[in-house]
Every structure is written in structure tokens, then in C-alpha cells.
User: What shape does this take?
Amino acid sequence: MSKFDYKKIMPRYVGFAVVMAIIALIVIMRTLYIMTAQHEYWTEVASKLSTDSLPVAPTRGNILSCDGQLMASTLPEYKIYMDFKALKESKTDTLWPVKVDSICMMLHEIFPERSAQAFKDSLEKGRTKLARHYPIWKRRINYNTFLQVKDLPIFKLKPYKSGFHFERNNARQKPYGSLASRTIGDMYAGQEGARFGLELSFDTLLHGKNGYIHRRKVLNSPNLGIMLTPAEDGKDIVTTIDVGMQDLAERAVIDELKLINGNVGVAIVMEVATGDIKAIVNMEKCGDGEYRERKNHAVNDLREPGSVFKTASLLVALDDGVVDTTYRVETGSGVWPMYGREMKDHNWRKGGYGNLTLPQTLHFSSNIGVSRIIDEFYHKTPEKFVEGIYRTGIADDLHIPIKGATPARIRKPKKDKRGKDYANWSKTALAWMSIGYETQIPPISTLTFYNAIANNGKMMRPRLVKQVQQDGVVVQEFPPVVQREQIAKPQTIKIMQTILEQVVSRGLGKKAGSKTFKVAGKTGTAQIADEHGGYHSGITRYLLSFAGYFPADAPRYSCIVCIQKDGLPASGGGMSGVVFHHIAEGIMAQSLKLDVKDARDSTSILIPDVKDGNITAADYVLKHLGIKARTDWNGSYTDGNPIWGKATISNKLISLNQQKQPARDEIPDVIGMGARDAVFRIESLGVRVRLQGRGKVTKQSLEPGHKIKKGEVCMLLLE
Assistant: This one.
């Protein structure tokens, strides 16, 4: 018999089913009611209650010089505000009338361009309005300034009590200002993207990857939640730029541009062995007469290079074996007819150069000499000459990592359909191409060619970036790249090295030379087209160049200087060569180490002029120079305790005599001291010093023994 009592159990199941059906019906009816009658209400609620993900911007990577100095970095900047309503609600408002004057005085000290009263008027205006986001200072401020403001009375309290709050923004900073600015690059406002230069070329590496956070927004009150994906900060790139060389090159270019009223000045310094770009300058005259970097002319400008191209022309002829250094060419009186056109040398008004050897055609930059040599051996087969030019690598794509960089454009002769005549080639094309016209070559390509000659024929690709780092660890290397193993036969390169050295020692490149080391290179002066592509706009525009390397007997650096200017005088050697000279001298001086003994000879003055002052320092220097001095005191410069006195010279013997010093409230005697010691001596007593002139102190406005008064100033006259 079954234990299931049908009559007792079934009524319970039916009752449960009826209740569930009623509940389901109520839910359905309620759902329909919400979907229809309350649709607009719940749509509005949904708009105020949402969950989404927000991107978190990473910190952009730095751009570093070759030795790790910051050239572009992302630093925080702040905009500072007051919430006067929060100040009032927190009951801190009672402190405001007591502290407002001191706050405004301190704000004036931090921001001197605005008076304390102006700050007070502005802040009181915001307090009257109970403004919640009132700007204390309308411009962004750096982190150090932000800390100063944050430490002021009331502002230092917690935000909900003080009302002081801020917005943090990341800003791209360049510690060296405009140094190499077109090459380093720049960002759009708000760091929305890179504009040009290495900032643009390496934007993906520098930018990093966005992170994402889970944000819940309830009734317009944002609450940041869980970090879903952390941001990956950008990587740092290490350039090949040397800050010292860059600064030196920029100053040399600007000084010459101002002197000759030039329009554009370009200079590039390259390390011979590696192809590293150590400095790259692109100065252009602006509307206000100042020189700034507005375009990367060094890699973008396609100009007819002029006479610096003659080196490539003769290198091809020598390498093909059609001529040697004994070959002679007649240049006449400086004017020579070339297929219906006159070819002129720069000295044609003085009668020309007459008969020249092949090296002399480069020494004196003879247009006629070079063009006649090339035309003599390649007129019937110009494609052979152009193929030789391409073989030198001067037309190679150098893969410069800067947007807009363009390889040289050197056209090749093409036969017509019949295969007899050249379709794109005139009889004069070869003659003018050989001296740097009818070609377009950026300065970086010309320099790479000269660097290859300095490097015994091995052409290195220019390198601007050598490493990528993450948190100081190298994650990617960009090693030096050999563009061409050999641009010409080794013996041809040796011949050209000798000729280029003679251009500076004997020829037109003398002003690029140095008395302390050998320089090799070639001058160039070319008439160039104006912006509209014409040569006859009324004013003749010139491109003045000098390309070479130093020291010539053991090349370390190559350099090209290009200057664009209007009208005469115009001289590649006398203008660009001078800039090259200053750059080369400066670079070599940076690494120059001399022994003082090398300076001694029969005419040397071995007893130096020693100033009064810190005689412990004078004794230290004299000992290291190997010069004995008579002293009646004991002391050491390295101990840091100066002994003050006077220096006298008698019978070629220097005496350093200690003198009794006045009390701390009296002015000492600084007559005969140098500026450094005199200023230290007086200002250590609390008296300000003003200097006039150079040399030794000959007069002091406050006499020795004068009783010191607070706020006094002592004038020192130096002669």
C-alpha cells in the first residue's frame, strides 16, 4: 500500500502553484507598467547611474643627449583654485579675514608680477560669490611653485577644510630651450600628439600605452574604482646629440649670420667612425630679425650644392682611371665656351688661372677645370659618369628618422625611342652637373659623402638615435650601420684626402683651417633659385658651403656648414669656412689636454702675476705649476680655511705674506685682489658688492676699517 496521501498533498501543491502564478502575474504587470508609464523616469535614472571604463594616459618618455642629459621631458604642471563654498561649510571661513593679508603678500612674493592688493581684490571677489572653482593664478605653474603655494596658511589644510584644490597636467619641457629644437621635435598643445622631429618619428615608443580604470558615476559624483589595466609609461630614447657641440655650433652659425645678414644657416657635425650626428643646426631669419629654428633645412632642403660637388665629380674620374693627379687642363682667362654657353671661374675678371693640374682645379675651385675634365671623358657616355656618382653613395636614401627627410635627386640620362639620342639630356647638362648644378642634394647627404672620404672610403649611415631605455635599462639598440663598404678604390680615397687637405692649406679653404691641427675640405659658392624656382628675381641668392673633416691626419669629426644669403659679397670659404673653423676649434679645445711644462720656452715668462687675496689658493696653484713661493705661515688650500694676505715679487721670487684681518664688523682692505676673492671677502660680512671693470681691485667705495651698517653696498672698481 502506497504511503502517498493524495487527498492531503495535492491541495498543498495546487495552493503553491496558484500563489506562484499570482506573483508571476504581478511581476509581469509591474514590468509592463515600468516599461510604459514610468519609461521616462527610469531612463533619466539610468543616465545618472552608469558604470564605464576610462583611459589613463601614460607618462611620456624622455629624449636624452648622448651622455644622458635631458633634452625633452614630461613634467607636471598645475592650475590652482579655491572652493570658497567648501571653506565656508567647513567653518574654516573664520580664519580667512585673519590670514588673507599674509596669504596675498606671500602670493606676491611667489608671483612678483602681480601685487598683493591685486591678489586680495581677486580672492575677495571669489569669496563673495562663494565660487567653487575660482582660479588663484590663471596660468600653469611648475611643481616647485605649486609646493610653495600649497604651504601657505589655510591652503596647507586638508582640501575639504581649506577649499584649496588643483588640476595636474603633464607638460613637455626642454631643459636646454631651443637647442636642436627642430631635430628634437615638439608636441601640440595639451600633448595631443607630436608635431615634428624625433618626437614624431618615435612617437609610439615615447607615448607608451594607455591604461584603463573602472569608474562608477552616481548622480554626477565621480568615484574612481578598480584599475583594470595599468598604463605603460613611454620609453626614453638616447640620441647622439652632444649638448656642448650643439651649443657651440649654434652660436658659431648665429654669429656669422648676424655679421653677414644671412637668411639661413645650417651646420651638421658627424662622428667619422660611427656616423653619429653630434650637432645639427637649422637657423632661419624671422620677421623680427632674430634667428630661430623653423624648418629642418639640414635634411629637407633640396638645393644645388655648388662646388662642394666637384669633389664627387673628380673622385669618379680618378676612380675610373681616366685621369691622374698629373693631368693638366687649360682654363684660359677664366671664361670658356661650352656648347653655346659661357663657363666662368670666380676670378674671371682677374684673368683666370690658365693651365692647372687636376688637384689645382679643386684647390682653386675652377669651374672650367672640373667641367672640362668631366666633359672630355664622359660627354659621349654621360650615364657612365652618373653611375659613378651614384656609386659614391651621395644619392643614397639614408633613412633619416625625421619626417620630411629626402634623399638627393640626381637625374640619369635616358635614350629616346630610337636609342641614338638622349631624351632628357642637353649638351651642357654634364658640364654644369659636374660643378654642382642640375642636381638637388640635402646637406646631410653631402656631409655623409665627405665623412666617407674621411673614413677611408667606408660610408656610415647618419645616426640620430642609438638606444631605447625603460627605467634606465637598455631595451633596444640602434648600432652604427655601414651604408657602403667602399665608395671608391682605397688608392683613390688616399689621393682625394691629400687634395682636400691641400685645399685648406694652399687653396681657397684657408679660413677653415687651424694652426693647431690639420683640416681637409672643400668650399662651395652657388647661385640658387628663389622660393618660386627662378634665378632672376632681381636679387641674386647664394648658397655658401664648406664641407670637410678634422684633424685631417686622424679624422674624428666631419662637418658641413651651409649659409644662404642675398647679394654680394658671397664666399663659401670666407663665410661658411669661418664657421667651420670656429666649430672645429671649439670641439678640439673641449678634448685638449696640455701640460704646463709644454708651454715653457726661452721666451716664456715663468713668474706669473699673482693677485692679493686667498694666498693658500695661490700657493696651491704655484706648487702645481712647479713654482716655489716664500711663505711665513702654515696652511693648506684643501683644508678649506683661507689665509688672507698679499703677494709680492722680488728678484724673480714670489712672497706670499699673511696680513692681520680687521674685526667682523669692519670692511677689509681688498685693493689688489681679484674679483672672486674681493667679493667673497666682503659679502661674507653681510655687505653687498657691485663690480665695475675687470682685473684687480683698484678702488673700493667703503674704506678699509669702515664700520659695517646693515644694508650697505660696496662698489669695487677693477682695472
Remarks:
- The CA atoms of residues 607 and 651 lie 10 Å apart.
- The chain is about 35% helix and 25% strand.
